[in-house]
Design a protein that fits this description.
4-stranded antiparallel sheet, 11 helices, 355 residues, alpha+beta
């Protein structure tokens, strides 16, 4: 089979949160399309559905039940129906009246995607029979079942053919998110120009924070103003805020409930930690240390904020040239949770050719 061929598959989740073995689905649709290749890049076109990195799935023993438990532990931090700005549709000026009636209230899914470390683009070693899971956090809402798309490019070797450095200005606020797709930055235009000049037909672009950068991360998600400038900011300032939201009314009127109600939010946190310990198969003796860690350190220590993201380069562009694949709402986003003295962040960008 030709090196660097591409396959795209449509998926129908069966529940709102679903874990789908795409390896099996690709095999059903395309036969042994990965046979003879060493690696494969998997790409999700969505902001509430994607992949975990292979190293994490290995810790979860490639077990779908453990993957579900891991996801659920983060979803409990961001439960549906909390007081998210993103879900107050009357504030969403970009939506038409018809869109407001049909738009899902799914801030919890976006925050779970970002917080748990899901990614739009992941590379796996090809091993016969080993599953690769597409994790959907918002596949069903009401009577609507979404149609999801995912692509795979199998290959044997990868080669860096070009690189680029970029300095991104940030405001003086402690918690900041920057849409790297913003045309005013010119970053994506520079990246596309480099792809055209490098001749890469199939591969990926790796965007990485420079080693000296601290208290910052990268994700690919929807850059919706209320989500990025309010909900995500609230999470980074107080990661347990939305988990505690379910007890908000009780806490406002503590005389109306037994005194022990005041400890329920902490009890929920213990359950979250226990789920993570079980899913990752950590020793029982580590549970107390894990709880102390959750209670005592900033968000970046347990939210799986990534220092790099990747974008797929497809050979399906005009004239057969390489082009960046982007889902409808996808944007690479830079996030910081402590002020940068330089008021900028440095990115290292590599252009990878698949062979």
């Amino acid at each position: 089979m030709e090196s660097g061929c591409e396959f795209t598959l449509e998926l129908k989740p069966s529940t709102r949160i679903d874990v789908i073995d795409v390896q099996g689905r690709f095999r059903e649709s395309f036969g042994d399309c990965l046979k003879g290749f060493r690696k494969a890049l998997y790409y999700s076109y969505h902001t509430t559905a994607g992949y975990f990195e292979e190293t994490l799935c290995a810790r979860l023993d490639h077990d779908p039940d453990l993957v579900r438990r891991f996801v659920d532990s983060y979803h409990r931090l961001f439960p549906p129906g909390a007081n998210y700005f993103h879900d107050q549709l009357h504030l969403r000026k970009e939506l038409s009246e018809i869109q407001r009636r049909n738009e899902p209230r799914n801030a919890d899914s976006h925050l779970t995607f970002i917080g748990s470390g899901l990614t739009n683009c992941a590379t796996y070693t090809v091993r016969n029979g080993r599953p690769v899971y597409f994790v959907d956090l918002d596949g069903v809402f009401g009577e609507t079942v979404r149609t999801r798309r995912t692509s795979v490019i199998p290959y044997n070797f990868e080669r860096r053919v070009d690189s680029l450095e970029a300095e991104i200005g940030v405001s003086n606020h402690s918690v900041v998110s920057v849409n790297l797709n913003d045309q005013r930055l010119g970053l994506m235009e520079r990246i596309r120009e480099r792809i055209a000049g490098s001749g890469v037909r199939r591969g990926r672009v790796d965007i990485v924070l420079a080693p000296s950068e601290r208290n910052a991360g990268l994700t690919v998600n929807e850059y919706e103003t209320l989500l990025m400038r309010h909900d995500l900011v609230d999470v980074l300032r107080n990661p347990f805020r939305f988990m505690a939201e379910r007890w908000r009314h009780a806490l406002q009127n503590p005389r109306a409930v037994p005194g022990k109600m005041l400890n329920y939010a902490k009890y929920d946190l213990v359950q979250v930690v226990n789920q993570l310990v079980d899913a990752l198969r950590l020793r029982d003796t580590l549970a107390e240390k894990a709880l102390d860690k959750f209670l005592g350190v900033p968000a970046e220590r347990f939210l799986r904020m990534k220092r790099s993201v990747s974008l797929m380069i497809s050979g399906e562009g005009r004239n057969g040239g390489g082009t960046i694949v982007e889902g409808t709402y996808q944007s690479p986003i830079l996030i910081q949770w402590q002020r940068s003295e330089a008021r900028s962040r440095r990115l290292l960008i590599d252009f990878i050719q698949f062979e």
